[in-house]
Predict the structure.
Amino acid sequence: MDLVLFLTFAIIAVVCGLSMALQRHPVASALSLIGVMVSLAVLYVLLGAEFIAAAQLVVYSGAIMVLFIFVIMLLNAGAEKTTHKAGLAEFMGIPLLLLLLAVSTWVITKSTAAGKMVKFGAFSGGGPREVGWELFTRYVLPFEVTSILILIAIAGAVRLADRELD
Amino acid sequence: MDFLLVSIIKMLIIAPALLATLAYIVWVERKVIAHVQLRVGPYFVGPHGLLQPIADAVKLLTKEDFIPSGVNHFFYWLAPWLGLMFAVTGIAVIPFGPVVEIFGVKTNLGLADLNIGLLWILGLAGMGVYGIALAGWSSNNKYALLGGLRSSAQMISYELPMALALAAPLLLSNSLNLREVVTTQEGFVFGFIPNWNLFTGFQIVGFVAYMMCGFAETNRIPFDLPEAENELVAGFHSEYSSMKFAAFFMAEYCNMVIVCSVATALFLGGWHPIVPEAISPLVPTALFALFGVTLLYHGMNPGRPSDRKTFPVFGVIMLAIAAVFMAPYIGPIVTPLFWFLGKVGFLLFFFIWVRATLPRFRYDQLMKIAWLFLFPVSLINLLLTAFGVTFFGK
């Protein structure tokens, strides 16, 4: 059952990822990206990381992508047109992409032994309680630093928007 | 019995029940608004218009599915079903009642018992925007596009205070699992105040803030700017007809049901009765019996000729329902259900009541309420609740 679910949603994620890169229309690309994020959320659930899955749904597919779609709709962006002007990309694009894929596959197979579970730090269990506990004890400094960083970013964004209004 | 089999049976019960409820909320809404405006509402299809939802469903199914020119076909087709899917999936984590034993099988009334129940609801609420935004964008109509844009902006803005307002009762209950949240609200304070989150501290502030956000999230009056008829025809679903229109309609009502269910579970004690446990089954029995007897009385002295036939039938049905609550095995199962559905039903009635009472806000007022009133109020409420929980415990 787990394997079936994993294969289904892994394939959906890969197909949506390809579709995101290949679609000509920005809204179609954005929707494909949502497909990738939702499938990733399902994969997180399969790994037992419930909270990360929910955060993925709420933050990425629920908030960030809504803003993407909002901006695309507001600008009324149409489909892209191919110009055939980037000569180098036309010849080197696909070989370089293949090279990148080969290198990343090699690195991943080298660095992780086959059949081993993925581990992240000292995490065990992915429920909201465990994640919250770890965030506010072991990782409290990075957590607070990140929150201050985000606060600074918000202040900067407000300042920029304010200058534009004046 | 197998977990899978039990789940499938529960799904087979809840899914049709939800769809029937959605159809009949429309009937209730039309009736309530009609009576507020001193009309009778739907009356001719079946006794007191009770078959009207079925007639409407048949009408919508057989209507021509008109697609205007210049639409983006794939997204135009996808949008209503996307919206409906995200709306109905939320019902999966709603706890309707406690763990009960039916035919020797112990199971809890409700579909899934997720540890992240509330986050799941919030995630789906966030995703629900896509149906509306895509519908507005793909319709190739400037009114629809404006409706879609308004809706996205509105839902993003109101999600924030909604999440903050919901966080306060979660602090009190110390869990994200809706079933556990309801379980912590059992019992009474001083023997007569129910131990609900609503009555703990100043949670009534959070409750009001949440309900206001709920109105905005479901695009209901007074926050129904995305489909303001006098400005935008019908907003994001202007170009939709037939079943696609029905899908939007059902999604809106389903979102209402979800919002009210979450409010019931988090603030109003879920399935826990407002009266002491011992006399809890007596309340529904008395209510339904009173209703049945009143109907029988009015059937004897009819105001309208048709009442002579219909009122006694409904009266007997109500008396039968009253008897069910006192029955030995079924009674303990349906009594919590009655309390849960009764509270949800009251909140739904409140939604309809507000729709019949209030006018629509202006767009700038809508945004001002979200950012300058609801957001600070929910934030302060959350802060005070956090202090309260830290210093006084629950």
